Amino acid sequence: MSLIVVRASDGPKSIKELIAKAKTNPGKLNMGAGTITSRLGALLFAKEAGFDAQLVPFKGSAEISQAVLAGTVDFALDSTGTALPLIRGGQYRVLAKYSTRPLPQLPDLPSINDAAGLPDLAESSTWIGLTGPAGMPAAIVEKLTRKVASIYADPVMADRLEKAGITPVASSPAEFDAFIRSESERWSRVFKDNSHLKLAD
Q1: Considering the entire predicted model, what is its pTM?
Q2: How far apart are CA 169 and CA 171, in angstroms?
Q3: Which CATH number fits domain 2-126: 3.40.50.150, 3.40.190.10, 3.30.465.10, 1.10.10.10?
């Protein structure tokens, strides 16, 4: 999942403080994001919170962390796996998680919905899925599903994934299909609202 982070030394101390700063300085704050989902999530956050900020796209978390720590961007959406060491090391201050799902590594971190009072903001995260060609035989789908489930059931792997902030978003082909359709519909609206911007590399 994505986390909204700022530089610990001088960044806002809460998501509400960040929003207030952005509203006081319309169009002057820079927000960083790497993946296309994070970029769309940043734009949606700004729209729902009612402020105008400049989206600064990056190719990955390494560039994002450099920009946050150098003060090139005022805040960023960064992945949990990359952000956690910087949070623990005192370089990042994390303001909220862009999700309503639990995050065991930061159990007291509020969701952006609760912290900012924005109940309409849904999940913004990068996800990975296994897909196949249309018409794939059900027996093969079943076999692949069982294999993936066995990987997630392995205690060592499950622990590694959890520490990296990676959690399943679907547990069956039907759930994954519904998730893809829902994501496509949701983000296509944000694409249309921001057609004037370059959102992909």
Answers
A1: 0.76
A2: 7
A3: 3.40.190.10
